[in-house]
Design goal:
Arc Repressor Mutant, subunit A, D-Maltodextrin-Binding Protein, domain 2, 3 domains, single chain, 15 strands
Amino acid sequence: MDSASLVMLVEIVDAGSISEAARRLKVTRANVSYHLKQLEASVGEELIRRTTRNLEPTELGLRLYEHGRVIKDSLDSAQETVASLDGTPRGRVRLSVPNGYGQLVMTAWLLEFKQRFPGVVLDVVFENRIQDLIRDEVDVAVRLLSEPPANLEWWDLGSVGIVACATPAFVQRRGLPSHPEELPQFPVVTASMLAKRLRVAAYRAEERIEVSLEPTLTSHNFLFLRDAIRADIGVGLVADYLVAEEIAAGAMVAALDQWRLSMFGDRVYLLTMPSRHRSGAITSLLEHLAERAGAASSSRAGSGAG
């Protein structure tokens, strides 16, 4: 058994298939299969179990994978050290961010990061699903969740509230709900959900109410939702950052502001795989995002206190 074989095992597990591993490594499938068979022959056991959907490591395969991961991370770190002799982080970071939060909140943070660290190649993916960070080759993910996944390292970037709002024209024509239980009486515009019916929890002091809704319009695209609210389609149930400027300018009117509304999760988490040898590029991005989120949170708190 040698370190190259263990690193190859890591590539196969991360890729989820021998073909994908070969594509990423830019070698033939036969070459990858040969190295896997040689490693299995040297330990005398099967290391990869083939399922109907992908490949999964056996118990021994998983243990060797963990050793191989340490070796691969160390090699990557060594390569980055050579490339970063001038002290500037270099390398590639693949970042996955939610559509709305990524566009409206994080864009300025990410552009600022690129200005500070031009040697880091930043690959930003806008999506809302919770994916397998390893299989999708994602180094860092930002997600709105109720609580962070137990198998990942995470940083709490702060809370996101849900606002019920509509345009003044809609309010003049239809009014606004004065209590959460009145929401089903209105056409609702909100984010897409898995089930047909949406359950919204509302909190006020010790009181908790849960309301079931059938929205009139849903989408994963938050900018589209904001346009729909602007077009008087209905009462929006959307993230506070999406309509904060409109409400402040009087272009939208907020309702139920004595209640705290919750639908899918109320905190934003920065997620990454646990690693003892994290690259300087990834570390710099994690620190930058945590710093900018903290500053934004402090600014909101200061504004609220005034």
